[in-house]
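Here is a typical protein record:
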Amino acid sequence: MTNLWTLLETSAAKSPERVAVEDAESDTSISYADLVTSARALTEVMVRRGLRPGDRVGICAPKSISSVIALFAALGGRAAYVPVDAGAPPPRNAGIFADCSIAMAVVASDLVEGLMAAWDGPPLAVLEDLDRGLKLIGPERSAETAVDSSSATIDEVAYILYTSGSTGKPKGVVHTHRSALSFIDWCSAIFSPTTADRFSSHAPFHFDLSILDIYVPLKHGATLVLIGEDLGKQPLRLAPAIADRRISVWYSTPSILRLLTEYGKLEKLEFPALRLVLFAGEVFPVKHLRALKKHWNGPRYFNLYGPTETNVCTYYEIPQKFPDDRTEPFPIGFVCSDDRAMVVDEDDAEVSPSEQGELVITGGSVMREYWNLPERSAKAFLVDSTGVRWYRTGDVVTESPNDGYIFVGRRDRMVKRRGYRVELGEIEAALYRHPRVTEAAVTSVSTDEKGVIVNAFITMADGSRPSLVEMKRFCTEQLPAYMIPDRFIFPESLPKTSTDKIDYQKLRELA
């Protein structure tokens, strides 16, 4: 039976000596045969320390070959892996591990002390010292018998990815082998991977972009090239690494592609191997996409859309050429093969294609639930008259017969201002039309005296700080009066989350 473990096992049987994973920072690599052998050995250690099918295994370590081994070792024990941001505060990571009741965790040695100090659960101990600067920690448990790694059913939980919650407490998105494989199989059909491909792994493992990064290449006997956090955010080093490592499939957020375009000196390098550029996670301003295509004009480009809860559920291939005067972002496009979509109003009634409404998704790639949050899970789904569950994305879209779904904005980023409904993302799109604006983000705050105040955070290409009059005049040419921001703030850079998205929470605090 196929599961995420057997994807690796099958490729190793076909091409044991091929390089499975390559670390661009340490310049080390591991073959398929050695990856399987190392993962099996770690699974045996975990089982000897009490790992049981259905358990959760935490992973708190920087991205490396050893952390890839760790997540496959968890899958090999028929457990689910729970990756966290190794750079996050220890109390946050300890809280995540406690929330899903980990049986054990693979932790970088220098992070163990902080994690254990923040732990508020059954006593943790260092169960085993592992190679490559890792330790296995967890509660003491009795040993189990051997586990048949290939016997995991596709409805068992494969991984839990924690995302920020509106209450301030992270929530765990539960994906099974079935939902992961649905997405991976779709990627295989659309992107036609081969053993010659070299996939970037730019996203951290706690970010949902990593699912494509890890499993699509390893399913096809290709090579996964790990891009560590330091390298991944230094465009002057990253651009040559993409060229020198002969990356053929690149996948990241648009923010990283913008940094590469502006600061990576792409014009001085050649990228003959690059055949696919995939981006997801946020809107890609067209002027930055156009600038990138001037340097990388050979690859096919895809806009991939989907919250963590759905993997990727829609996609749109960017035309090779598009009008120079286009300023509107490209659509999120068409539904992936194993999913279905519907657009509904506030009463959950389906709207006509030209009307705005919330996008809801059902199908193979959708999560099972939020971990240990039954009420939140129930609210996350619309259940229709036939009993089908549709995940509520919270994203407002319209539908076009030629372009599929067009993203309008987040439902929770719509505000009422002067009697009008305002989508903050529309203001951001207008600000990006300014020739010197490199990044723009808009937040709002409600006040008793002045109603909704709109704050625009902007970085300029030349580091300048335009006057309020200049920015107001520009916005008057782009937006109706009720959408013009009240304040313009010019930080040196916009704060980012660990997954390279604009950190709106920090911006609201700054405002």
Q: What stands out?
A: Residues 44 and 503 are 40 Å apart (CA to CA). The first helix runs from residue 4 to 14. The two ends are 53 Å apart (CA to CA).
